[in-house]
Write a structure and sequence with these properties.
The structure holds two protein chains of two kinds.
Chain A (H helix, E strand, L loop, with lengths): L22 H6 L3 H7 L3 H25 L4 H16 L2 H26 L7 H18 L5 H30 L3 H20 L39 H18 L1 H11 L1 H6 L4 H28 L10 H11 L4 H24 L5 H15 L1 H7 L18
Helix pairs in contact in A: 3-15, 4-5, 4-14, 5-9, 5-12, 5-13, 5-14, 6-7, 6-8, 6-12, 6-13, 7-8, 7-12, 9-10, 9-14, 10-12, 13-14, 13-15, 15-16
Chain B lengths: L1 H10 L8 H25 L6 E5 L12 E4 H21 L6 H20 L4 E3 H27 L7 H19 L1 H25 L4 H24 L14 E2 L9 H5 L1 E2 L1 H19 L1 H11 L1 H6 L4 H28 L10 H11 L4 H23 L6 H5 L1 H10 L20
Helix pairs in contact in B: 2-3, 2-4, 3-4, 5-10, 5-13, 5-14, 5-15, 6-7, 6-8, 6-13, 6-14, 7-8, 7-13, 10-11, 10-13, 14-15, 14-17, 15-17
Classes of the chains: A mainly alpha, B mainly alpha.
Chain lengths: ~400, ~425
């Protein structure tokens, strides 16, 4: 296996010294994938993302003020944002709770990026995964935790994998662009969840609104910090998400399969010429991506919500795109970016509660972060940095 | 595929020898047609009784036509028979190159059977559904047109959904303050500004066009939701715009069926017809169109002939964005006069599918958007009629049709060759 390991070392491999990146090599290596497969240099990996976040927050402040909120109240809102994300142990617990599904969906988008695919279907994959998990969670009774919980988790994983298989196989067999197919599957998943929650199979007895039955205690994720304070919602799903990040890192950078994924992402034609089955890679990657997002949906149901309601995914599937881009599709980066976005989410809740500023501004800030991260030259231009970074390039048009 | 084409070239007449993949395709479509016939015979026929009545004029029509009534069960048997015949011929020898057309016809017959089934014992207003079809295909056709303008110059525009939503929002806000026409202009400008963002990032900064498109969608969804909660809920007066009335064109509007469909609509629908015509003319009959298409097909060659790739792309993308913003006005100024979060509901993406279905051609995209508009208005009608199909499944129809279209199951179209590729002047 060591022979097939790519010559470029994994970004966070402890024993690998990062190759020197000069201005010259950057010019040659235009393109996202080359950048990603080389290494984290401090400018690309830390300075640009940091400045992106700061700039996005500043623009967000301007938008809040322009929408008619006085500056003092806007600053107060940002104070609440900070307070709600890192202000106390409870706030940190909330941040990590919000980060848990973001890590998994971020990994889902990231592994697809590595293979040159764009998975916007996180939202639908999460929803279907959540439905599978809740079904196993409430329909089996009397099982011990050690059997029931893994069963429910695997159910969520399978649900998401099914929802990822469809765009994968359509891409492989017919060339249907995964962006449109995954978005359409998001809408179909939302409608399907809406229908199922009103069916006798899922709907809670005695309720007329769409809400599923509550999962059994034996299917609930164990709480991690409830011995300090019972209101700490951080749960075992975080450990699963971190294990998934380690697994994806191993898969991408230490296995033949991962090498194939990256080769197909870098150049499908060359990969095909080298004897790899591009179609098989597309299906596999989308199944893995769907499984990760399904795990995120299942984790939310089993760890936080304990039941399914319409819209329980709460846009996490889309935030995963920002997480993957900010984390440069690197598992370690994804974890860091997910914690940051979890902080924005948890802090945003606090902001909405204690001031008049709506939570939706957070998604505006996230969109701005993606713009700056995807166009590093913009940040370099704003802050007069020396070397303009190469722009992000993953897709190859409709025909690919 | 290749075998059949080669023998055609050798003998000079249509070949009967089919390649293995052609036989397989013929067999599969034959089975599909048989299945549709079986569904009609086994599921739909036992569920109907009485007559199905189709209304073909509205109360305001100049010429009143009496509704058509057909016996439900009898017509279902006939339609099933037609499907079975098509399926059998397809299975035995296939229609060769015309397989797709016959499959489409078969599907049309099946939809007709569904309509007969749904309206058994009730009256189904055919003409109001057709009017709704044209109205509902308007934002889809305009979205597709927006995509065509961008993509003919080689810039993929996934952000149409965001442009629609942005146009709908500013349209309603400006329309509430300054009237519908100003709202329409504001919507168009909003689309143009969002397109400018796409143009700057894709042409100057060479960012991945699909990422920018997705960002535009997330940005506009977040921004409009934020402003709805901050501004519109506190000031309901800003979310109450006048709706454009339907304008009836004299004489033409009095033609039965066609009149209400095409000649008694709002200015936005007429604008769509005009834009489809103008875009076709400009793209295929003017120097500007030739330049745009050459930049989309081969920017290097265009550049070497002295065409400024960046300028052509900027202009095309901005025009496309303005069309997208104009389409957004349909959701607020053209229908309900108020804005709701995420009210476009994926129409921008369906527009992209219409663009692909229509082969990056304005007329084709318009015809494709009629298919989507039809499935959209049919599900609305079925939801009103008392059918046992859950409304959620009916609402899935346009999304499923989109997947079928982009999967190329109804034939493959070729995108502009340089679509999605940033151009760097050497």
């Amino acid at each position: 296996m060591s022979e097939q390991t790519p010559s470029t070392p994994g970004p966070s491999a402890p024993d690998a010294s990062p190759p020197v990146i000069t201005e010259e090599s950057l010019k040659q290596n235009r393109g996202f994938l080359q950048q990603l497969t080389t290494s984290v240099n401090w400018r690309a990996g830390i300075l640009i993302p940091f400045l992106s976040v700061v700039t996005a927050l500043l623009i967000g402040l301007v938008i809040i003020v322009l929408s008619g909120t006085p500056l003092s109240e806007a600053l107060e809102a940002y104070g609440a944002l900070l307070q709600g994300s890192v202000g106390s142990i409870k706030a940190i617990s909330e941040t990590l709770t919000a980060a848990t599904p973001l890590i998994l969906v971020g990994l889902s988008v990231a592994i697809a990026f590595r293979a040159g695919l764009f998975n916007i279907g996180g939202e639908g994959q999460m929803a279907i995964g959540g439905m599978f998990a809740v079904f196993v969670g409430f329909s089996f009774t009397g099982l011990p935790l050690i059997i029931h919980l893994p069963l429910a988790i695997v159910a969520g994983l399978i649900g998401g994998a099914i929802w990822g298989f469809v765009p994968g196989v359509l891409k492989a067999k017919t060339g249907a662009h995964e962006v449109i197919v995954t978005i359409m599957l998001n809408y179909i998943a939302i409608l399907l969840v809406g229908y199922l929650l009103k069916s006798s199979l899922f709907q809670r007895e005695g309720r007329s609104d769409p809400v599923s039955r509550t999962i059994e205690d034996s299917a609930a994720m164990p709480q991690l910090l409830d011995w300090i304070n019972p209101s700490m919602r951080i749960h075992f799903g975080l450990i699963i998400a971190l294990l998934a990040a380690v697994f994806i890192h191993w898969l991408l950078f230490r296995t033949t399969t991962g090498f194939e994924f990256r080769a197909v992402g870098a150049n499908p034609a060359a990969a095909r010429y080298a004897g790899m089955s591009v179609a098989r890679v597309y299906v596999m990657v989308m199944v893995i991506a769907g499984a990760l997002a399904g795990l995120a949906g299942g984790g939310q149901v089993l760890g936080v919500l304990e039941r399914v309601t319409p819209g329980f995914t709460a846009g996490v599937g889309f935030d995963g795109i920002a997480v993957a881009l900010l984390g440069r599709s690197n598992p370690a980066g994804v974890v860091a970016a997910a914690v940051l976005f979890g902080g924005l989410r948890a802090g945003g809740q606090q902001m909405q509660v204690s001031t008049d500023v709506g939570l939706d501004i957070i998604s505006v800030i996230q969109a701005l972060i993606i713009i700056f991260v995807a166009a590093p030259a913009l940040i370099s231009w704003i802050y007069r940095l020396k070397t303009p970074m190469a722009a992000t390039q993953i897709s190859k048009g409709w025909a690919s | 595929m290749t075998a059949a084409v080669e023998s055609y070239e050798v003998t000079g007449r249509k070949s009967k020898i089919l390649s293995r993949s052609q036989i397989r395709k013929a067999r599969i479509s034959g089975v599909a047609l048989f299945l549709m016939a079986a569904v009609i015979m086994l599921v739909l026929v036992p569920a109907v009784s009485g007559v199905s009545t189709f209304g073909i004029s509205t109360v305001t029509d100049f010429i009143q036509l009496s509704p058509i009534s057909v016996p439900s069960a009898g017509s279902l048997w006939i339609l099933a028979g037609v499907l079975a015949f098509l399926g059998a011929s397809q299975f035995m020898r296939g229609f060769q190159a015309k397989t797709t057309i016959f499959l489409g016809m078969g599907f049309g017959v099946f939809v007709l059977a569904m309509m007969v089934w749904a309206s058994a014992g009730q009256q189904f207003s055919l003409v109001s559904m057709l009017v709704a079809t044209v109205a509902r295909s308007t934002p889809i056709a305009l979205g597709a047109l927006s995509g065509i303008l961008c993509e003919r110059s080689g810039v993929v525009n996934i952000g149409i959904e965001g442009m629609l939503l942005g146009g709908a929002f500013t349209g309603v806000v400006m329309g509430s303050i300054l009237g519908g026409w100003i709202g329409l202009i504001a919507a168009t400008m909003t689309g143009g500004i969002l397109a400018l963002l796409l143009a700057v990032l894709s042409v100057n900064f060479r960012v991945d066009q699909i990422i920018i498109g997705v960002v535009i969608n997330i940005l506009v969804l977040g921004l409009t939701s934020f402003l709805t909660s901050q501004l519109l809920i506190k000031n309901p007066g800003l979310n109450d715009a006048p709706i454009f009335p339907a304008i009836k064109i004299p004489v033409l509007g009095d033609i039965p069926i066609i009149g209400p469909m095409f000649f008694n609509q709002t200015v936005i629908v007429y604008g769509m017809f005009l834009l489809v015509g103008l875009t076709t003319f400009f793209l295929f009959r003017t120097r500007w169109g030739l330049r745009t298409r050459s930049v989309g097909e081969n920017p290097k060659a265009a550049d070497s002939l002295g065409i400024s790739v960046a300028k052509v792309r900027y202009l095309s993308v901005i025009y496309g964005g303005m069309v997208g913003g104009f389409a957004g006005a349909w959701f607020t100024l053209g229908t309900v006069g108020r804005f709701d979060e995420g009210m476009t509901g994926g129409r921008g993406f369906i527009g992209l599918a219409a663009m692909i279905f229509g082969g990056w051609n304005p007329i084709g995209a318009f015809l494709a958007s009629l298919v989507f508009g039809f499935s959209d208005s049919l599900q609305q009608k079925f939801a009103v009629l008392d059918t046992p199909i859950p409304t959620e499944f009916l609402a899935m129809a346009p999304y499923l049709v989109t997947i079928i279209v982009v999967a190329g199951l109804v034939g493959r179209a070729r995108p502009p060759a340089a679509d999605g590729q940033p151009f760097e002047k050497q």
